[in-house]
Amino acid sequence: MSFTAEVKDELSRVEGSCPSCDLAHLSALVRVCGTLSFGGSGHYAIRVSTETGAVARTVIKLAHELFGLDTPLTVRRSVLHKTRNYLIEMPAQPGLDEALVSMGILGADRRLAPGVPHELLQKPCCRTAYLRGAFMAGGFIADPRGDFHMEVAVMGETLADDIADLVADVGPCARINRRRGSFVVYLKSFDDVVSVLRAMGGTLSAMAVTKVHDMKSRKNEVNRLVNAEIANQGRSVDAAAEQLDLIAQASELIGLDNLPPTVREFCRLRSAYPELSLRDLGRVHVPPISKSALYHRMLRLRELVEQAQDEAR
């Protein structure tokens, strides 16, 4: 099961906070993944198509509980994609037109109503119920092991704008993009995705995303530390090579025995431990001395070599 299907399955089990939440939920499901047909003389029919069993189950359950509608179900299997497709039909029947008006799909004049039915969404719980239904019907969420991405695809710019407003009600600012004739409301950050999941009631899904995010953060921190350590080792190796070169020049131009005692001791230590950083080199000194002290001895060695080079010219 894909992560999207897991999230939708969890959301299908969320109970509304008030009696109107179920109506808002069903309204979004029918609006986003349903097709309305008109047969004349007030005869309407709805076809809801989805690849998610949880969505089909929720549409049938709410249509029965709220309006007592007949909802024949056909399950088809795609040979090409090896997936199931659930087709729920609400054929022309007594009460269907009133149900569509109650859901805000049709206006009082029996014309298709644009956007979300604001009259159903007066309470915050009803707005999140509509958002939950819209995601279940047309939503996708990427596996958090990859990128953090969540979206809802709908037909119609007005509906997309209204859904983006519902997302803004719970905090995140969603973006809208046009894609192959539809409009996609999307989020692309961990914080935004988790906020919307929690608002819709997807507590377990939000925890799963958070767990993966924390694991990614720890992995990135380990990689950062390893890369920093490798970089530090690289700098230490380059510095040690430069210091060994100075020692060789000092031996040729001055003679190590003619160097000041502290500088001569630095040359001995560095030659004996070419792989150590200055900090570690100071720890093997007897008695131990600081990195700063060794650094100043190295600077003194450089000055002596430069003086000897100037005198040799």
By DSSP (H or I, 4+ residues per run), the number of helices equals 11
Distance between the termini: 79 Å
Radius of gyration, CA atoms, in whole angstroms: 35 Å
Q: Uncertain runs with pLDDT below 50, 5 residues or more?
A: none
Question: Which sequence of strands runs across the widest sheet?
Answer: 1-2-4-3
Beta-strand share of residues: 5-15%
The major pleated sheet works out as: 4 strands, antiparallel
pLDDT averaged over residues = 90
Helix content: 55-70%
Which secondary-structure class do the elements indicate? alpha+beta
Question: How would you describe this structure to a colleague?
Answer:
This protein has helices at residues 3-11, 19-33, 53-67, 96-102, 124-138, 157-169, 190-200, 203-253, 261-272, 278-284, 291-312, and strands at residues 34-38, 44-50, 73-77, 84-90, 139-141, 150-154, 175-179, 182-187. The protein has a four-stranded antiparallel sheet. Strands 5-6-8-7 form a four-stranded antiparallel sheet. The protein is of the alpha+beta class and 313 residues long. Helices cover 57% and strands 14% of the residues. The longest helix has 51 residues, at 203-253.
Secondary-structure topology with pairs:
Blueprint: H1 3-11, H2 19-33, E1 34-38, E2 44-50, H3 53-67, E3 73-77, E4 84-90, H4 96-102, H5 124-138, E5 139-141, E6 150-154, H6 157-169, E7 175-179, E8 182-187, H7 190-200, H8 203-253, H9 261-272, H10 278-284, H11 291-312
Antiparallel strand pairs: 1-2, 2-4, 3-4, 5-6, 6-8, 7-8
